[in-house]
Request: fold
Amino acid sequence: MPQATDTRLHPIRALRAIRALQRDREDTKQVFLLIEALRGKTTLRQLNKFRATEFGRRALTERPRLFDRLEDWDTLKALPAGTLGRAYYEFMASENLSAAGLVEASKVLKRPPASDDMTWFRERNRETHDLLHIVTGYGRDPMGEACLVAFTYAQTGQKGFLVIALNAARRAWRFLPRQPVKRAIFEGYRRGRRAEWLIGADWEALLRRPLEEVRRQFGVEPAHYYPTIVAAISRAGLIKDTRPAAAMPA
Reply:
């Protein structure tokens, strides 16, 4: 019998994580703590939705490890230019990142026992974060992360992502008062709402596909405001342009 998982909201834990993030926005562990505190029943709903799909039923039986595919840089590097997997490799290499980094940061969580399906599904969702950077065209700069979080909230309904997006919008508005910060973040949410459900994607198969083809298949529309903001602040010398190598065109 599957073991119970905690579906309660924990607002006090969430508040602590928010305050810690306000002190240090690079503290990735607090992001995991915030999302976990406000997870509620959203992951259960997402898992049930995943289980209702043909790919989801097969994947939950076979339980492929997306992590292993994303850490196999030799194979990803050998893929043709323009494919999702090659773009992912180039992005991670240029940013000195690895899928193992998110795994390490997530160890801060002290979760109650969950069913094997739930554990696998959570880990798979964690591994998709940087893939979503590539598919959406959002970089790792603060604006790109804020827009991607808004996109992810629209895809998952997890309240923690909403809190992070709103907090990022408030902070960015202070530092970039002349830029359409709020519009860019809301556009990220709107793109996530309009796109097909990427959480349930067969990422292992998609890695070999042309990136633009993947975007068309899932209805990921081009961003307008984010590239405009990045170009403006890059010209001003405020940040470097950290868009993915195959960023979404304006």
Observations:
- The chain has one domain: 11-235.
